[in-house]
Amino acid sequence: MIHAGFMKFNGIIDRYIIRELIPPFFVNVAFFTFVFLMTRLLDITKLVVNYQVGLWDVARMLFYSMPFFFEFVIPMSVMIAVLLTFLRLSNDNEIVALKGGGMSLYRLAVPVMVFALAGCLLTAFMAIYAHPWGRLAFRNLLVQAAGSSLDAGLKQRTFMDDFAGVMLYVNRIDLKERLLIDVFIEDRRNPETVATVIAPRGQFMADAQTHTFHLRLFDGSINRTDIKGRSVDVVDFDSYDMRLELERMLPGTGRERHRKEMTLAELRQFIETRQKKDERYYLALMEFHKKFSLPFACFPLGLLAIPLGIHSRMRRKFWGIGLGLFFFLLYYMMLSAGLVFGEAGIYPPAVGMWAPNGVMGGIGLFLLVRAARERYFEMDGMIGRIKRLKERWLRCR
Question: How far apart, in Å, do the first and last CA atoms of the chain sit?
Fold first, then answer.
């Protein structure tokens, strides 16, 4: 009977803690999503100004960008939600009351791990399914929106090198008829020859499937100069099509599917069939591991947030947010370092992608054990020691 009552008590406490975690989690998701979207809004604003992209297309672009942000926002929100919840429980002496009722700090971590599991599954869905879909949809929409009004984005009487290997000059643009008048093109994409194209009229067309522009020229001529042979060929044409890559004009677009647009099966196939272990191989391998390491980060970050919330003696919530952001920034810096060193092949990509989880989990477990033994880590004392060390260093200088 006592055991059944204790289990019922534990279940009530678990539900209570999970209910306390949900509101700050959604508040943090909304806040950090807004912050991340603001960083994307500047690039989309350039599209609105340069290519007259409509508001509906802008809203769709922002929506397609959200899965990428959620890969980082959800683990960050899980951590800060746990930290703020335990900070409030500690400040209201509810942690002391729960310990007096027979619950250990390790038992209080169970609902947190259940909450982290939900965050992990949600992040995994974003990383494995939503992100590749959103990125590919964003790229297709980008080509369609920019291609439909590219004429308005071009500049008259200006040499433009937005296209890789191609210099474009247009004397006049007829927006009503969507025609380019008096077109001059210098094509250096072939290192052995230089082609100069002159045409009185031209027209742009976008191809969303190959993410390229087709420039159709009428009644012009092509002058091909063979650099090695030192010869010139002149060809007149009635109609001539040029395919121009979008890679330089609209960053993030190109004919080949980017590794971030690949599904899990496509990434695995690319890694297994890649014979040469070059930069693309290591980048694809890191992307594969990151699809699992980022969702799993909800567990070590959530575990770390428990002792941080209990240890802090500060009464203001912004302190908890600052702590969470500091440790998440530390996690992100280690993840970025893993990307750099993994790309260079200095150590296996799996190490770079999973090491931050191990470090954060180790720190969290160490602090949790100390907190369970009532050996609190004084944040104020640590800040004071850092200040004293700084003063001594300045005096020594």
Answer: 69
Alpha carbon dihedral 313, 316, 317, 320, in 10-degree steps, equals: -30
Pseudo-torsion of CA 38, 39, 45, 51, nearest 10°? -140
- What pLDDT, in 10s, does the model give residues 319-341? 666 777 888 888 988 888 888 88
The Cα–Cα gap between 137 and 143 comes to 10
> What is the Cα–Cα distance from 353 to 339, expressed in whole angstroms?
7
Q: Which positions ≥6 away from 355 have C-beta within 8 Å?
A: 334, 338
Crossing angle (nearest 10°) for helices 264-273 and 279-296: 140
User: So where are the chain's domains?
Assistant: 2-146+258-396, 163-245
In the beta sheet, which residues pair with residue 222?
A: 197, 235
Chain centre to alpha carbon of residue 85: 27
Task: Write the pLDDT tens digit of every residue in 269-298.
Answer: 888 888 777 777 888 888 888 899 999 999
**What is this structure's pTM?**
0.72
Q: What's the burial of 203, exposed, middle or buried (CB within 10 Å: 0-12/13-18/19+)? A: middle
Q: What is the DSSP string of 51-75?
A: H---HHHHHHHHHHHHHHHHHHHHH
Nearest CA to 105 out of 328, 318, 364 is that of 364
